[in-house]
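Before relying on records like the one below, remember that each one covers exactly one chain. Contacts with other chains, cofactors or solvent are not represented anywhere in the record.
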Amino acid sequence: MTVTRKDVLEMLAEICECDEILSAPEMELLDSNVLDSLSFILLLNRIDDEFGIEIQPTQVDFAVFKTPQSIADHLIKLLQTQS
């Protein structure tokens, strides 16, 4: 499966209901409360559904979920190691 940064950013923007993510991929998601607890769980579920990557909420490295760009980079890396 080929996933681009744009795919991940669009998914994240939809879940967080924040189009600013598309133009500011380095924005701080947690500090700005763009990614709250509900959207975080929705994101983990969507990552599992769309990409087949299961991430347990209790095993999350929050540095990975700091910015939209860091999430995209992490998911792309995980998908590359699976293929």
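Helices lie at 5-16, 20-23, 37-51, 68-82.
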